[in-house]
Amino acid sequence: MTEAFVTPELVRWAREREGLDFRAAAQRIPVKAERFESWEKGTARPTFHQAEELARKLHVPFGYLFLHIPPIEEPPLPDLRTISNRPPGKLSPELTDVLQDALRKQEWYRDYQEEEEIEPLAFAGRYTAGDSPNDIAADIRHTLQINVEMRHTIQNLEAFLRLLIHKAEQAGILVLRNGVVGNNNRRPLDPGEFQGFAISDDLAPLVFINGQDWKSAQIFTFVHELAHLWIGKSGISNLDYRRRSFQQQYAVEQLCDGIAAETLVPNSDFTPLWQHWSTVDENLDLLSRRYRVSRFVVLRRAYDNQILDNDQYWQYYDELRTKVTGSREKNKDGGNFDVNFLARNSSTLTLALLGATMEGRVPYRDAANLLNVNVGKLDGIYHRLVMRSVANA
Length: 393
Known about the structure:
Elements: H1 8-17, H2 22-28, H3 33-41, H4 48-57, H5 93-115, H6 133-144, H7 148-152, H8 157-170, E1 174-178, E2 180-181, E3 184-188, E4 196-199, E5 206-210, H9 215-230, E6 235-237, H10 251-264, H11 267-273, H12 280-291, H13 295-304, H14 310-327, H15 337-345, H16 347-358, H17 364-371, H18 378-392
Helix pairs in contact: 2-3, 6-10, 8-9, 9-10, 12-13, 13-14, 15-16, 16-18
């Protein structure tokens, strides 16, 4: 059998990057742990097939195994993640792969928009960090048609988020909502590592929402990422909800946090509606129903406005987190394949890409790679989605 002249140091790097010991890494290939260790020591080499499996199962590009030194993996977007003012840790392989996947999609769609001679989106980068958060929030509400009438049509948080995403896609924003890497349910995303990210662009702006996060947090994350697009600033986000908006570590996150809060719960009527003679619980129930947001969003708004002090906020924050954890309120990616497929890849991008593929403008294999599916599934997916579009017309 042909041996692969991999670099021992790169084999070790690939294993440690996944956070695995020898035994766990060897089981993925599969080979004996001693055999895998010998590859790292350079006393033996894997076969070419084993090296391909090593790269695939440890989620690294095959060519990396032959480099002289490990590559330096820098975040492709500004890393704005903070928890308790600690600097963010190294990106996990899952987050790295999700970022690269989103960037590939965004790049393709931007080229597609240019070919179609689409005009730049007016809202993209319309504002700067020095503009009023209230003005920016008002423009987001106007663009997405977030108003009292729209809120009254909503029955629950999931329906509100789906409608917001639909409105954003109609406005020209690619929205990816996924809890795993691609379509691989064995590689879940960690909401403790990131909640979402935004890629600012005037032709193909993109927002990613971590679908493993609590539903009650996903709406706020989504609007926070929209704020990034309105001020023209890309970034990876992981807000510290234990702090007020103006206490977030990065200035851009302070601004986007404030814009998101103002978009969802405008201060002009929130403050007068807070009933100081009622209990905090009664206010949370009343205002969460009015704005169609979670009690958690209302709680943070009251905290930002200093209606609640630290002790009150912490008491209710802990109670809400306990209830959410106990109810296992996380979003699951089960259910209808086509619905999840569109959510994971952006309905706008998916339909454009499939249409271009059927027209012969994009090779089937390229489209399948962008959508993370087998080539043989494309025709079936396309015809089901087209039939649904006709039925909904």
